[in-house]
Amino acid sequence: MGTEESKKRPLVFAYYVTGHGFGHATRVVEVARNLILAGHDVHVVTGAPDFVFTSEIQSPLLFLRKVCYCGAVQADALTVDRLASLEKYSETAVVPRASILATEVEWLKSIKADFVVSDVVPVACRAAADAGIPSVCITNFSWDFIYAEYVMAAGNHHRSIVWQIAEDYSHCEFLIRLPGYCPMPAFRDIIDVPLVVRRLHRSRKEVRKELGIGEDVKVVILNFGGQPAGWKLKEEYLPTGWLCLVCGASESQQLPPNFIKLAKNAYTPDIMAASDCMLGKIGYGTVSEALAYKLPFVFVRRDYFNEEPFLRNMLEYYQGGVEMIRRDLLTGHWRPYLERAMTLNPCYEGGTNGGEVAARILQDTAYGKNYTLDKLSGPRRLRDAIVLGYQLQRVPGRDLCIPDWYANAENELGLRTGSPTAVTAENNSLTDSYPQDFEILHGDILGLSDTLSFLKSLAGLDALIDSPTKTGKHSIRERKAAAGLFNWEEDIFVARAPGRLDVMGGIADYSGSLVLQMPIREACHVAVQKIHPSKQRLWKHALARQQAKGQGPTPVLQIVSYGSELSNRGPTFDMDLSDFLEGDEPITYEKSRQYFARDPSQRWAAYVAGTVLVLMKELGIRFENSISLLVSSAVPEGKGVSSSASVEVASMSAIAAAHGLNISPRELALLCQKVENHVVGAPCGVMDQMTSACGEANKLLAMVCQPAEVLGLVDIPGHIRVWGIDSGIRHSVGGADYGSVRIGAFMGREIVKSIASKLLSQSLSTNGNHPDESEEDGVELLEAEASLDYLCNLSPHRYEAMYAKMLPESILGESFAEKYTDHRDPVTTIDKARNYGVRAAARHPIYENFRVKAFKALLTSATSDDQLNALGELLYQCHYSYSDCGLGSDGTNRLVQLVQEMQHSKASKSGEGTLYGAKITGGGSGGTVCVIGRNSLKSSEQILEIQRRYKAATGYLPILFEGSSPGAGKFGYLRIRRRNPPKQN
To answer: Is residue 688 among the annotated active site residues?
Structure first.
């Protein structure tokens, strides 16, 4: 490291390593090796086996201390158990935190540590600060980012974990950031270094000679950590002339003759360099070394492994990756993927000496060099990458240098900026009012610019074959997969379904409330083609699967979903339609849930393919032909604006049109609810699907959810305007909070019925068979309440008079089951070990139904400030009722508070008020806030000011939802055909 530093005294480094696979340990090896070469002592605190370090470093300056710091708990090789990870972290790092800190401070002092390095153990930074020792983190991700999404799945539990981790990280001097990085706003200062890659010990020729493998043999290295020990590997998995080198196989595992078991301590970089491609799971170690040694990487996604999208983007940017579907991995359909990998030409030319660079930075910092001078703060350095939950958004403009692969990811994600002007400008550029590439044989685009844009995108798919770099805003893999979907000489059917903004009603829909919903401008488009199996162009893996069955062409469903990178899900899905059959009958909904649960990275397909199964089961439809389907949704996921309903409604509408099925919008919405309830397994009400199917532009759909009676459309008066503002916190109808509140409401209904039955029995026994007229009226009320079908049929005054004080605040699931047997909700299940809030969950729909009725009546009243104030007050009341149920969130509360501050500001009071109320929407626990105000320029300016203030407070620029569009029923469908179809191979 130079002569000047050699004159200074040797240093003592304490190097903490997260217990999260070998990836962290392998990169620590390279940094530690360079520190030791410079003459410094390195004490590594790790749970990894000794050989990971000693195989590369043989030095008395290396000291290994066995301590395993929790990372992520894996349910299997490809699935992270989010809740178990949080529980484990809580048990091992939160509960004993005080003793851990005391132990680490004492140990650091005992070894006379000069400097602490963390990859990327949070408590190490705090322990260093307590010991008065500087610290630095080296990583490509941080645990606050990883756990943030896990916390959303855990409901209210463990939320403090993320903030504690971020606070721990804030004690370090700076972050040494590795390529393939995630957003890490907890760090104040950042220094980027090249890839940290272990060096090679032996040549490709030497390794192959030792293993007895000739140069003419194709070799794939199977690298899934220690997980493959339980997998059954078969000889036919590999193409003829291939060998597979298996990492992590158990000693007792029997392998076929074309699979070779590697020793536990085999040096992976040498093996990789001697191989022709790798089959494994994505992690920093595998990706960095595959790029460094230009090894094609066939990868299988891991579920809830939140650093993966960033590493995957980098891998694919340098043309080094092929994604394999999980079921093809487990069933042995490897050949098409391995053959595809051999056509790749990985082109990474960046530095691979990150270990040397990082070691020099650590040494120089420990000797007193200041690397943080004039550096932008962490939040400034990452101002365009803000994490709230697990949502990545972009904001316009960048004044920092980010690598090409990261900028490429921006285009692939196709992310909204949150500024409506950006969308408007794009729409205004669409001067053509008619799609020139297609002849419209049925239907009308209704002047919708997004539909015209979708048709242009559809027409451009064939151009990808000639110019594969022109992929538009969608990823290369998505566009390539879509390019082969359709036969351009035959008809294609297109449907469109919008998302919805919950103006009033929200979670009261499942209790039978009146709801008022507005279809938003953002919508999902689905293109479907029905095609004979012999004419369908199958993807290579699907073709290989079908050939393996030896049955000839059979009906296959192939789906491409644009925007997959945003949610870390597979961009394609395919299945034999016979998978939905047992004999001649459709499979049960329970079996369909199990079918889609096999591969969570493709679980999204349940929303689309589930429409096929529901049509089979509910309408008796049999699909004799294959189906090719393209999904393109502009409805952002996780924002509480019904992205799932728009996908379901658009998919079923397009499939119905392609097969000549005449389904009314109302019936279609009810069928789509079955998709979500029974195939997806999310306990949603019906208002989302009804709005997407039956709504009309610039009107509120009024519906009584008993189960789905559309009362009509309510005009939004011209002086009133409605906005949606996204909080940036991911919302999920399948989340634990929504489900528990729903269960609490149904419990409340059963308890009310039980109380009413007892009161009725007492009344009849007291008065005999001859009650007077007033008593008879009371008996009739009690009879109705004893057989209450929907909570919303109970009026607020009867609730307060008879039941409010008798409902428990909460009840244990087991206690409820013992006393009332069942809550009689067909789409949720009571956890007997869990406590459920009852009083607030039951009270909300009773009062919400009253609020919605009042809101609807006020919309038709005389125009006045009193009208607007009353409408706004109803929104506020709804918002705080959500919070009483436990469905609030910091982000949505902040937005509502900002609206209140704007409403009550001196500027608003001195002139005409503009904003009047706001509420959380949909299922709650995040998502979008609905705002009501005067339709004026000033109100728009105030909304933009709220957007600005929210970003200043949180770093997240909210998406604004403005405008409306027609529902799927009003749009109908398009039947289109290419005017000049390109020749297809």
So the answer is: yes
